[in-house]
Amino acid sequence: MVKICCIGAGYVGGPTMAVIALKCPTIEVAVVDISVPKILAWNSDQLPIYEPGLDEVVKQCRGKNLFFSTDVERHVSEADIIFVSVNTPTKTRGLGAGKAADLTYWESAARMIADVSKTDKIVVEKSTVPVKTAEAIEKILTHNSKGIKYQILSNPEFLAEGTAIKDLFNPDRVLIGGRETPDGLKAIQALKSVYAQWVPEERILTTNLWSAELSKLAANAFLAQRISSINAMSALCEATGADVSQVSHAVGKDTRIGPKFLNASVGFGGSCFQKDILNLIYICECNGLNEVAGYWKQVIKVNDYQKNRFVNRVVSSMFNTVSGKKIAILGFAFKKDTGDTRETPAIDVCKGLLGDKAKLSVYDPQVTEDQIQRDLSMNKFDWDHPIHLQPVSPTAAKEVSFAWDPYEATKDAHGVCILTEWDEFKTLDFQRIFKQMQKPAFVFDGRNVVDVQKLREIGFIVYSIGKPLDPWLKDMPVMA
Ligand SMILES: NC(=O)c1ccc[n+]([C@@H]2O[C@H](COP(=O)([O-])OP(=O)(O)OC[C@H]3O[C@@H](n4cnc5c(N)ncnc54)[C@H](O)[C@@H]3O)[C@@H](O)[C@H]2O)c1
Ligand SMILES: O=c1ccn([C@@H]2O[C@H](COP(=O)(O)OP(=O)(O)O[C@H]3O[C@H](CO)[C@@H](O)[C@H](O)[C@H]3O)[C@@H](O)[C@H]2O)c(=O)[nH]1
Q1: Which ligand is nearest to the CA of 223?
Q2: ipTM at complex level
Q3: Is the CB of 87 under 6 A from ligand 1?
Q4: Which atom of ligand 1 is nearest to the CA of 157?
Q5: pLDDT in tens, 186-230
Q6: Is ligand 1 within 6 A of the CB of residue 38?
Q7: Is 8 known as a binding-site position?
């Protein structure tokens, strides 16, 4: 029986391995992690991450051919194929701080593989890594190899959170990069035969190592660039009376452009886009490609601009101050159908409002109070390190309370900010919310989920990203 081991039981390692186990009953899959609570959770009824459809997949295979364990060394030494899916956060110190990928966790995983392996291994880069990482990993493994042969493959993951199971069942493509040597090609075939159990052959792409590594960074940069493009347009829509939804619909109808990923928002979040673009910028700079670096930097700058613009709209609409005012925050996760808050725009918006001394009441159906407090008190980039290395008892943000439902959050509030597009926000009883709020009552929709006209009829003053402005807001200065 082929044995697979995945180092890192996170958002990628857990769901990806669960789907491999489901689709390949003859393969034994072990997912290992240094975090004891995480592995305990994977072995319980309360999985450590919320992802639609994941529970069913895990329940079908756990204990049969899918195992979660903290016995990292044993499973690594027994495996034929080792996936490495550990954190690759942005460096916070030293050379390349604020841009380059921190490969500490990757390197320690590679050294451990070299220490415990007794048979030949295929080592698969599942984490998103800088181009040429495979070369560094190869050096670490072969310098300590004791005669054992390693083949390194790059197999970046393209799943999006909230749709991970759907994406894994039916991927647009699976990308496998490897050395163009007989042993390299053999390793590519071995991994290809795993995916071929359920992915049509023509969707499994094979390339050289560097193309596979770079394609992952490029794909995320292209996706994020589309969002920054439509968000830049949303500012112009507000200034001119155009409606960003109509503009994106009209633009997306061009088959060369396509309709997806053109929703204007308060800004993109998530653990990948900013981190991977910063990483791309750093690689460009290291290769002396400053104009190329500058091009991609702009995608992040527009994203920051969009978040600032939102906060400034809130403050300026409410008589230029939110000091002492209760603002309800509906949605904290970086997108719907996940409890993940890494790099969520809600953090920047909340921090911006707290900076103006607002009192916040936050509701999110999947994010805990503890997580929100952590996020609001953590330093930049700390969030993407393994949980046991994050600050243990963050200083609680005193002006932030946590609500169990949207009606409690909005009670006596002066304003409501919608920061995640949870489906339940589309069907809220806004009449009831209006009645219990201070007047004038404001709604700031950062996700374009509410029916603006209906809310204005109820009596709200409404700001919705990229939509024609409320008469109340028209004469306010547009600033960033
Ligand atoms: N989250 C996504 O949607 C997504 C999608 C595609 C690619 N990626 C990439 O995949 C990688 C992992 O992302 P994630 O979201 O799953 O991160 P995560 O933080 O959810 O999971 C990483 C896990 O690795 C564990 N870990 C770290 N060092 C370890 C070691 N030496 N031994 C054993 N376990 C160790 C951590 O404890 C953590 O549980 C990153 O490079 C990310 O950029 C993420
Ligand atoms: O039209 C859009 C689409 C998305 N977003 C925002 O963009 C962010 C990222 O969304 P999404 O890409 O759906 O989620 P991720 O889980 O971050 O997935 C991205 O990042 C992963 C990690 O690298 C990749 O594997 C995926 O292919 C890539 O889509 C979220 O804040 C969304 O709200 C918008 O504002 N407008």
Answers
A1: 2
A2: 0.98
A3: yes
A4: 6
A5: 999 999 999 999 999 999 999 999 999 999 999 999 999 999 999
A6: yes
A7: yes
Domains of the chain: 3-199 (3.40.50.720), 221-474 (3.40.50.720)
* Structure-token pair, residue 202: 């023509």
- Of the candidates 436, 437, 445, 396, which has an alpha carbon nearest to the alpha carbon of residue 418? 445
Q: Whose CA is nearest to atom 27 of ligand 1?
A: 86
- Residue-wise pLDDT for 236-250, tens only, equals 999 999 999 999 999
Q: Is 346 marked as binding a ligand? A: no
Whether residue 272 has its Cβ less than 6 Å from ligand 2: yes
CA–centroid distance, 438 to ligand 1, in Å, is: 44
What residue type is 384 in one-letter code?
D
pTM across the whole model = 0.95
Which mutation among 161, 271, 304 tests ligand 2's pocket best, with the greatest number of atoms within 8 A of CB? 161
